[in-house]
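ok here's Bul1 N-terminal domain-containing protein:
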Amino acid sequence: MKLFNKGTKQDERQKKVTNYPSSTAGSTSASTSASTSASTSGSVPAETPPAETLNVAMEQLNLDPFVSPRHEEVPMWNILPSYQLYEATFSKSIHPNSEDLRYEPPAYQSDREPAPTQDGYFPPVEQARGEPMQTWENSILANTHRMKKLSDIDNKVANHLHVEIYVTEKPGKLGVKPSIIDPSVWEFQQGDNVNGFLTVTNTSDRKLPFDALSVVLEGRVMVTSDSVESKEPSVFYKFLNMFDYSASWTPTILVSDFDSNVDPVDNTELMFPMKRYFTPGITYKRFFNFCIPDKLLDCACETHNLATHCEPPPTIGLARDQFLKNLRKLRGRPATPTHSRSTSDFTIGGTPPSHSKKTSPMAGSSAKMRDFSFADTSISYSVEVRVVGQAQEYAKELAKSKTQVRGDEFILLNETSCFLRVIPRERLTHEFGAEAVESEARTIYSSFLNTIKRKVELGNDLLSEKTEETRVNLGHAPSLTKNKQLFNVTGDRRKLRRQDSNGVYQVFVPYKKKTLVAPPKVIGLIGAAVPKNRYRIKYIQPWKFRSQEDRDLQSTLELPVELRFLPSEGSAKGVLPPDIKSVSVDIVACTYRSKKYPIPIEVYHDLVFKNKPSEQDNMESHLIKPCKKYLDELVLLTKNLSYDVLDIDRSMIMDVKSIAKLNVKYTTLKVDNVKVKPKQGVSTHWEAEEASFSHKMTLNISFSKLSSKDSSGSYEDLTQEPIVLVPSFQSCIIGRLYYLKINAKLQNGEPITLKVPVTIER
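and the structure:
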């Protein structure tokens, strides 16, 4: 069977689409005992701008960046599993009221004045609407990262409140000595339990009052700000928020299995005081239990409702808080010599420990890993313990501080984090199939692109004084659900089949014959092709995370490649195909990131490359550049037309800007272990066919040894820091794709490069 076929021209699809909703998403989970999840979701409809501002250019619009969560309208008491959980957590807004359970309530007397008459039991609608509704946006749990810290006001007092987190192998029990583990040498996945306990100790000589204590498992994406002076990140998005009700302080005493409130193992108190203050010299302990979820809640991508964005992403990058925590630990640790290697080979996952010395599983746990993410972007998971109090309880310390704090404001007394490394399994493609997932991604992108084209066409038609009928026909689009239904008709499926009818990844380049006395002459075309399949690479764990039986973990791939030479019609008879001097393979990690707005599409490999013999065959040319062009056209149109005439809202502008301003990073790694069958000798064996020559070979690729290629073209010896290629993933802010570059060096010294998409899975 021949790999090469004539490609068909892609037909342009015109579909009616809708504008994506303008809302940000967040998810919150609450747990009782183990983890009972609940979610919050909501949206604020896009407001139509006033008439006098309709002609303002898009760049002047003050669009909200992507933060989590920002606009939530669902009341907490409608979704939480208990009223006590609401009262202990979400009912506490950023600016608290004067009620405090630590003091005796006032004495109440009967009021003899008649109550105002009402027509019914419920208050009037106007009165109900006037009452402020408590939302996630105003809760203290959603704003802990914005709170002022007691350590910045009076570090001495903050240091007296010691908060520690310990992760254990099994759930904690009263009277049983726990088996404490180091979470930095573990990799978690869906379904894994995170067990442990926290301790709070007041080492001062006075009672330290607090208002709330929360134990949360968080997953978040953070992009640091470009400004050196700004401490606030440009993007701070919590895609996972699981609240352990039993481990946190609550106003309700839970029915416990413990016979005593004191653990005899370490003489710690198992109950927090109801009057909400920490007694000097007493250590309080609470057990927590979490479970890594199989998938995120739908509100994790509520803005665009993309399936791949609701999958747990892997840990990537280094969070700022994690970096500072590691730095504090290293300050008191003696320097240890590093082992160097003289060869240029690099074992993925890091250098294995020397067999001459006994090593424990903790060895090398602090080693830095390179996952080739953006330096300012990270995805992290952590167990967070936060102690929150009211500023008025620390008025003496506030009086000495220059920090401006209101007396009724909540402040962060102390907090601690236990970071977890999460590498999830692939779920969508196993449940629905890779073809269905990619087809859905193509549908969404086609809808997105057609929406923009329709708006541009509408604006151009209106400027050309089109008829009112044209304006009506072009001005409106169906909903996103209807658009997906319209796309999945027979005609559209036939177009998709035609686009994929050749069934191969292929590239053709002209082959030039070089001589010493004449300029190079094109004597034919030479191409390379690989069958279109889903090529998967097994995720290789870094060395310190491997178990004893996985020490020799390997990841290999067999790739059938066919080369074809087509002599040109004008070339002389008897032209022979060139010899293949060498074959090499690179793996490219393509990381893309949005710094402000959520990404509205699912990126697939055709948006990254199309195997064109050009240096511009990249994501910038196929995805970002066209969106920049459409954005400029929309800006020009809005200078002469209003937004309501063009039917443009805030969400569409955010979507276009998100893609037009994407940042892309390519990291090329050379695969050192590539075996070619049959071996390439002095001359290449070509099989003569009708008007062409073909040569077939099989590449046996092992990804255990890689080398990094820098911008100068030289390969860097990666022996100091272990590298890790995280599984392929997509999210609302950052995503990672991989593809192979098969380089065949020809007889004339020029290479032919074929790009093949691959997926790394756990």
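+1. The chain has a mean pLDDT of 75.
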